[in-house]
């Protein structure tokens, strides 16, 4: 089976996850093409797709959102698996549920044969945050260290 593993990543962790998924698929005998969704790879020629994006403010990155809207059509159903990468999985609760049901995942449910969606833990480096975010990050770290 020929599989597209497409990703949208801002700082690289989603790309790394896509590469790990591709490696596992190759171990199982599949032909895999790992591509940035910003390159808008055509779905023609693939028998299945695994699509993923970093999640910011409850939504996939624009490259992934644009790709889902443009490349998925009800008449061209194919098996699709999806993954979202973000801090919601780390924080849990309402944040995790909110990320599970993003607009993009709902669109995939409507326009493809979405087999499964997984929310994965993202990586956070303080240097990726604005000044206020860095302060909050530091405070949260201090709170977690309290007995």
TrEMBL record:
Record carries keyword Oxidoreductase: yes
Q: What is its EC number?
A: 1.3.5.3
Record key words, sorted: Oxidoreductase
Q: Name one Pfam family in it.
A: Flavodoxin_5
Which terms does the record give in the GO molecular function aspect?
Answer: FMN binding; oxidoreductase activity
InterPro entries of this UniProt entry?
Flavodoxin/NO_synth (IPR008254), Flavodoxin_dom (IPR026816), Flavoprotein-like_sf (IPR029039)
Domain Flavodoxin-like as annotated: residue spans: 3-147
What protein am I looking at? Menaquinone-dependent protoporphyrinogen oxidase
Q: Which organism is it from?
A: Nocardiopsis aegyptia
């Amino acid at each position: 089976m020929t599989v597209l593993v497409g990703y949208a990543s801002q700082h690289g962790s989603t790309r790394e996850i896509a590469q790990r998924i591709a490696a596992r698929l190759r171990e199982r005998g599949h032909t895999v093409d790992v591509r940035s969704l910003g390159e808008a790879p055509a779905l023609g020629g693939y028998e299945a797709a695994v699509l993923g994006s970093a999640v910011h403010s409850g939504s996939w990155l624009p490259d992934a959102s644009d790709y889902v809207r443009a490349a998925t059509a009800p008449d061209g159903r194919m098996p699709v698996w999806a993954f979202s990468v973000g801090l919601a999985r780390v924080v849990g609760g309402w944040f995790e549920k909110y990320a599970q049901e993003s607009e993009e995942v709902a669109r995939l449910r409507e326009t493809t044969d979405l087999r499964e969606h997984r929310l994965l833990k993202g990586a956070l480096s303080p240097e990726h945050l604005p000044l206020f975010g860095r302060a909050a990050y530091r405070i949260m770290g201090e709170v977690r260290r309290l007995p």
